[in-house]
Amino acid sequence: MAEKAQYEELIRQFSAFGAVKRELGRILPAECPAGSAAVLTLLGRHGDMRMSKLAELLAVDMSVTSRHVAHIADRGWIERSPDPADKRSRILRLTPEGQAQLDELSERTTQLLAHRLSDWTDDEVGQLTRLMARLRASFDDCRSAHARTAAPPAVEQTTRTPAITT
């Protein structure tokens, strides 16, 4: 297990990663904020789905998901159709316009990352990708475990590590 100082440095790096996220956000078109981009990305990756599944994947409340979905539906990027299994539910599906928007987002982010990481080797980019996927999976495991337990594990308080801001 890593030492406390390593976790403290990791927290500082997470906080600094906010700058990376902000730069990625700045390249998004004005009509497609980060929440909308996340919805398009998930629909592109996972295919048609119910709103409840989308909310789960976004790890946000259903009301937040509904606002994102309404925003992109108003732009014609998704369609909402009744779920044949439950007429009260809606199935979300990318439209051709939504796929074109997703393709544009992918191109923009790919170009930015290729530019910023141009001095990285393919192995380094692959290693970062694997480690980030593993980190995400660890937090997905925690979220699932949290749903089964009443409280998250206790965290030791420290004044030496700044709060994470993004």
From TrEMBL:
Residues 156-166 have a biased composition (Polar residues). InterPro entries: HTH_MarR-typ, MarR/SlyA-like, WH-like_DNA-bd_sf, WH_DNA-bd_sf. Pfam families: MarR. It comes from the Bacteria. Gene3D superfamilies: Winged helix-like DNA-binding domain superfamily/Winged helix DNA-binding domain (1.10.10.10). Residues 147-166 are annotated as: Disordered. SUPFAM superfamilies: Winged helix' DNA-binding domain (SSF46785). Residues 1-137 form the HTH marR-type domain. This is MarR family winged helix-turn-helix transcriptional regulator. The lineage of its organism: Bacteria, Bacillati, Actinomycetota, Actinomycetes, Kitasatosporales.
